[in-house]
Amino acid sequence: MASVRRRAGTDARPFQNEPSLGLLRDRAVTVATSRRHVPATDTTLRYVPVVLAATAFALPLAWVVVTSLKKQSEFGTSLLPAAPQLANYELALSLANFAIFATNSPVLSSSYASLVVLVSALVGYGFARHRAPGRGRLFMLVLATLMVPNLVLFVPQFVIFAQLGLTNTYWPWILWALGGSPFAIFLFRQFFKSYPDEIIHAARLDGMSEFEIVWLIVVPSAWPAIAAFSVFSIVAHWNDLYWPLIVISDTHLATPPLGMMFFADADQGMKIVEVRPLVMGDAWRNLTFVVVRTDDGLEGVGEVRMVNHTSALLGYLEEAVPTHVIGADPFAFEALARRMIRDDYARAGQIAMSALAVLDMACWDIVGKALGQPVYRLLGGPIRDRIATYANGWYTVERTPEEFNAAAKRALAKGYRAVKLDPFGTAWQELPPAELRRAVALVEAVRDGVGPDGEVFVEMHGRFTPSQAIAIARELEPYRPGWIEEPVPPDNVKALAKVARHVNVPVATGERIHVRHEFRELFELQAADVVQPDLTMMGGITETRKLATWAESYYVMVAPHNVGGPVSTAAALHFAAATPNFKILEYFNDFTAPFVKAAAPGVPEVTDGSFPLPEGPGLGVRLDEDLIGDHPRRPIHLNLFGDGWHLRGRERVPSERA
User: Fold this and answer.
1) pLDDT on residue 1
2) Residue 574 known to be catalytic
3) Which of the residues 461, 514, 574, 631 is marked catalytic?
4) Which of 215, 447, 516, 613 gets the most CB atoms within 10 Å of its CB?
5) What is the mean pLDDT of residues 321-338?
C-alpha cells in the first residue's frame, strides 16, 4: 500500500509540477480578460464595414422614399424636399387603383403556384418511381425545355388564347399552369428519387393506391421542395410584366407591374390635384381668386370680380371642379373648356364662363411657370412693349364739373393719359334736359382736365333707348369722346346697330357678352367699332384670343373690360401684349384701397399712360393669401342705378345723400 502511495506520490509530483494546466488556465483568463477589454478603436474598425454595407443597401430605399416626398420640379435639383408633401401619393391613388393590383397579384401567383405543384408533383413522382420504357429520354426532353426562353413561346400561346377568346382573362395562367413546370418536375423528381423505397413498398403492401401513396405519404414529406418552388414561382409571377402585358388590357385584372405601367400611361404630364377659391372684400367689389395646384407643386392663379354673384360662382366651382378639373392636364386648355361647356350640356352664361376663365388663367400661369416663360411669349410673343391704359374709378367725388375736373387732373398726375367716366347718375332709358346738360358739363370739365391730347371715354352702362343715346352722342361730339360705351342694353344688337349708324363717335360694347358666338351678329351688323370682352367672364385668355382674331377680320379693335384686381389685370396685360388689334386696357386699382394691389404683387405701375410688359414666368404675380385672409368677403351689392353709385363705397358727400 505504501509503495502504491509512494508511486502515486512520485507520479503525482511530476504531474503537479507540469506547467501545462497552469498555462492553459492563464491563457483562458487572459483571453477572457482580453475579450472583456477590447479597445474601442478595434470595435469601431470591426463595425465600420458592416455599417457601410448596410448603408449601401439602405440608400436606394431611402432615396425612393425621400424622392416621393418631393415636388416634381425638385427632381434632380435638390437632395431633400424643401417641404415634404404627400401629393405624389394622393395623385397615384387617384390615377390608379393599387388596391386591386395588390389583390390580383397574390391571388394569381398563389393559384398558379398551387396548380403547378399539383401537376409537377405527379409528373416528378412518375419519373422518380416508375420504370417505364423511354423514361430517361422523356425526362431529358423535359429538361431540354428549360433551355427554351419563355419569350419564344409567348407569340404562339397568345395566338392560341386569342383564337379561343381567352385573352383579358385569367385562363391563360390556368391553362399554362396545368402544363406544369420543367424546373418543378426536375425538383420533385430529384426529391422523390431519394425517398426510401421501404416506405413506399410498405404502403403498397398495406393496399394503398399510387395516388394515395403520392398525396398521403410522399408529398407531405416534400414540403421543403414545395416551399422552395413556391417561393421561386410566386416571386417570378408577382414581378412578371411581359405575359400579363400580352394577354391583359383590363386594369381590374392587372398585376402590380402591369398596373404600374397603366399608371405611368395615366401620369403623362402634370395633373391638377387641387383648386382652392379665395374671396377678398374691397369697398365696392368682392374679388374671387382661384388657386390651382398641380401634382408637382406648381401653382397658378386666376381671378374674377363677379357682378353681384360671387356665391353662384363658388357653388358652380364646387360642382365642376371634381367633375371636370381634378386630374386634368393644365396644358390642355381646349380639353378643359370642352368638358366644362359641352359636357355640362346647359347653355353657358356668365357663371360658367367665369369659372372657366379663372381656371384658364391659372392654367396659363402654370404653363408659363413650368416653361420659365411669360404668358405673352406663349401667345406668340409681344407685338408691343407698352400697354396703353385708361383710368376708371377715379371720380369718387361730388357730381360737379369742378370736382370732376380736379379728379381728372389727379388721374393725369398718377401717370394716365386717358380716363373713362359715366356722367349720367341714375339715368334709365331717357335723360331729362337738366340731367343731360349736367352730364355734358361733366364731360366738358373732364376734357378740360385731361387736355386736348388726352382721351375721354364715355360709359353709358346700357342705360338708354337708341334715340336717347343718339341724341346724347350728338351733344358730346364737340368734346371728342374716344367712344360711347354700351349706349343701349346688350340684349338687342340691332338697336345698337341703329345707334352706330347715326352717331359720329365710335361705339364700344361687349363687357356683358360672355360667350364668343354671341358676337357674331354684332360683327355682321357692324354694330360696334370696339369690342370690350372681359376675359375673366368669357372663358379666360384662350377664348378671348379667339374672339380677338375673329374681330380682326372685321377691322374691329379690342379694348378689354377690366374691373378686377391684380391677377385679372396681369392676365389682360399678357393678352394685350400679343394681340394685334388691341386698343387700350381699363384699370381701377390705382383708385382703390392699396391692399388690392398688394394682394398679388407683380403688376407693373402705370407711367406715361401705359404699362410696361409684365416680368417673370407665367402671369408674373405672386398671391399673398395671408393678406387676402385679412380682408374677408363683404356683403356688397353695387347698383349702377342707385344714388351715389359712382362713389363706389366711399363716404357720400352731403349733396349725394338725398
Assistant:
1) 36
2) no
3) 461
4) 447
5) 92
Are β-strands 507-509 and 484-485 bridged in parallel, bridged antiparallel, or unpaired?
Answer: parallel
pLDDT at 581 (0 to 100): 98
Q: Which fold has domain 393-507?
A: TIM Barrel (3.20.20)
* pLDDT at 71 > cutoff 50: yes
**Annotation says 130 is catalytic:** no
Strand-pair category, 286-294 with 272-281: antiparallel
568-623 pLDDT tens trace: 999 999 999 999 999 999 999 999 999 999 999 999 999 999 999 999 899 999 99
The answer to whether 127 touches 120, Cβ cutoff 8 Å, is no
Residue pLDDT, tens place only, 120-179: 888 887 888 778 888 788 888 888 887 888 777 778 888 888 888 888 888 887 787 777
Query: What whole-number distance in Å separates Cα of residue 615 and Cα of residue 560?
Result: 20
When mean pLDDT is compared across 35-44, 356-365, 476-485, the lowest value belongs to 35-44
Residue 232 vs residues 181, 219, 223, 254: alpha-carbon distances, Å: 12, 18, 14, 20
The secondary structure of 241-304 as a DSSP string is -HHHHHH---GGG--HHHHHHHHHHHTSS--EEEEEEEEEE-SS-EEEEEEEEETTS-EEEEEE
Instruction: List every span in the chain annotated with CATH 3.20.20.120.
Output: 393-507
Per the model's pLDDT, the better-predicted residue between 481 and 20 turns out to be 481
Beta-sheet pairing, 286-294 with 299-304? antiparallel
Full-model pTM: 0.65
Identify the CATH assignment for 98-265 out of 3.40.50.1100, 1.10.3720.10, 1.25.40.10, 3.30.499.10. 1.10.3720.10
Cα 248 to Cα 161, 169, 179, 212, 229: the distances in Å are 12, 7, 20, 38, 25
Cell of residue 233, nine digits: 414561382
Query: Nearest Cα to 365, choosing from 324, 330, 328?
Result: 330
Can you tell me the distance from the alpha carbon of 151 to that of 281, in angstroms, rounded to the nearest whole number? 67
CA distance to 12, 26, 29, 274, 432, per residue, from 23 (Å): 18, 5, 10, 80, 131
pLDDT of residue 21: 47
Question: Can you give the length of the chain in residues?
Answer: 658
Distance (Å, whole) CA 580 – CA 596: 30
The third-level CATH classification (topology) of the domain covering 269-384+510-651 is: Enolase-like; domain 1 (3.30.390)
Q: What is the pLDDT of residues 171-189, one digit of tens each?
A: 887 787 777 788 888 888 8
State the catalytic residue, choosing from 237, 324, 514, 561.
561
